[in-house]
């Protein structure tokens, strides 16, 4: 489940009839490598490169928005706060709308081409009769971005006012800086699995708080909103109840525990903002390729995590995606 430049290249390759459309960019012999060579490449290099778009949004924020806003951030003021919010909302609408247009748009040549065959569920979740569905997803996705922008403002204020330690020169601690940056991807997968599992019934969906099943309670009142998207699309990933957004974005709260660079926080935040597109766009490789999470939306009690860290195999909730009639028959909108 990736989303970014590699997917764009892959979709273009597929559209123009090239056979190696799912090969990672320049690594054209990837499919001929041994199992361990591919695993080493995936875990050491590809899992980071695949999030180049998330990192680019974070880097641009650091290089462009921070110099404008951070010197004023020691005090709350509408000017710098609105600049931070505007940058975040611009990122949301440019990236999400572009991916929506590319994969579903009537005027998109790619959406009308061979990519159609890669859709897990052939129904378009955003066709004319389902505008209320689109409106719900856009609304809750925007609430997610607003919450993460607010969290960004809070951290900027904490750092700028001296309430929280941090360091400004990334290269003053080169090994630590790079290590934390590379750890973000793995931390996000670990955090996502447990937060997500936490919000599904711990024992039975029939339970409530009186049975001590906090998961069943949270599922009923919060996470079920995310699961209204049985046939997910690009806007489904962040379409969550604000309480779930709160739990979800705690992945970027680690600067409360140790002094880090603002770019570490920004990468985790934009990773959480943008990466869900890949897991939810509803298409197989070379688009998002989120077959694993597609099954979670179709069947609920499986595939809570992301395959990079195999918690689902460990805890017996793994479900492999196989194109067969029994799977197709259960697909719903
Ligand atoms: Zn779920
Ligand atoms: Zn989902």
UniProtKB/TrEMBL annotation:
Q: Name one GO molecular function term.
A: iron ion binding
Q: Where is the Fatty acid hydroxylase domain?
A: 182-317
**Record-linked InterPro entries:** Fatty_acid_hydroxylase, Sterol_Desaturase_Related
Pfam families (alphabetical): FA_hydroxylase
Q: Which UniProt keywords apply?
A: Membrane, Transmembrane, Transmembrane helix
Q: Which GO terms describe its cellular component?
A: membrane
Transmembrane ranges, per UniProt, are 43-65, 85-102, 138-159, 171-190
Work out whether the entry's keyword set contains Glycoprotein.
no
The compartments listed are:
Membrane
Major site of localization recorded for this protein: membrane
Which Gene Ontology BP annotations are present?
lipid biosynthetic process
Q: What is this protein called?
A: Fatty acid hydroxylase domain-containing protein
Q: Write the lineage as a comma-separated list.
A: Eukaryota, Metazoa, Spiralia, Gnathifera, Rotifera
């Amino acid at each position: 489940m990736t989303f970014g430049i590699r997917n764009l290249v892959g979709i273009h390759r597929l559209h123009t009839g090239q056979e190696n459309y799912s090969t990672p960019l320049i690594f054209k012999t990837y499919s001929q490598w041994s199992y361990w060579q591919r695993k080493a490449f995936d875990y050491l290099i590809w899992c980071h490169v695949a999030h180049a778009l998330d990192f680019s949004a974070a880097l641009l924020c650091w290089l462009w928005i921070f110099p404008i806003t951070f010197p004023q951030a020691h005090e709350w003021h509408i000017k710098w706060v609105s600049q931070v919010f505007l940058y975040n909302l611009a990122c949301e609408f440019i990236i999400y709308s572009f991916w929506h247009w590319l994969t579903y748009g009537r005027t998109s040549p790619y959406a009308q081409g061979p990519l159609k065959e890669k859709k897990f569920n052939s129904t378009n979740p955003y066709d004319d009769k389902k505008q209320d569905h689109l409106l719900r997803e856009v609304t809750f996705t925007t609430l997610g971005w607003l919450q993460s922008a607010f969290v960004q403002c809070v951290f900027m204020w904490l750092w700028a006012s001296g309430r929280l330690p941090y360091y400004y020169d990334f290269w003053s601690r080169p090994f630590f800086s790079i290590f934390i940056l590379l750890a973000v991807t793995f931390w996000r997968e670990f955090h996502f699995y447990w937060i997500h599992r936490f919000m599904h019934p711990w024992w039975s969906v029939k339970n409530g708080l009186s049975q001590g099943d906090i998961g069943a309670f949270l599922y009923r009142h919060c996470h079920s909103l995310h699961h209204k998207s049985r046939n997910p699309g690009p806007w489904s990933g962040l379409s969550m109840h604000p309480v779930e957004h709160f739990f979800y974005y705690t992945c970027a709260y680690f600067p409360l525990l140790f002094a880090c660079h603002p770019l570490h926080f920004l990468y985790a935040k934009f990773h959480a903002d943008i990466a869900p597109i890949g897991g939810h766009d509803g298409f197989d490789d070379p688009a998002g390729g989120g077959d694993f999470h597609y099954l979670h939306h179709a069947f609920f009690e499986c595939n809570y995590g992301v395959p990079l860290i195999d918690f689902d195999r460990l805890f017996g909730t793994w479900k492999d995606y196989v194109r067969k009639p029994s799977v197709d028959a259960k697909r719903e909108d």
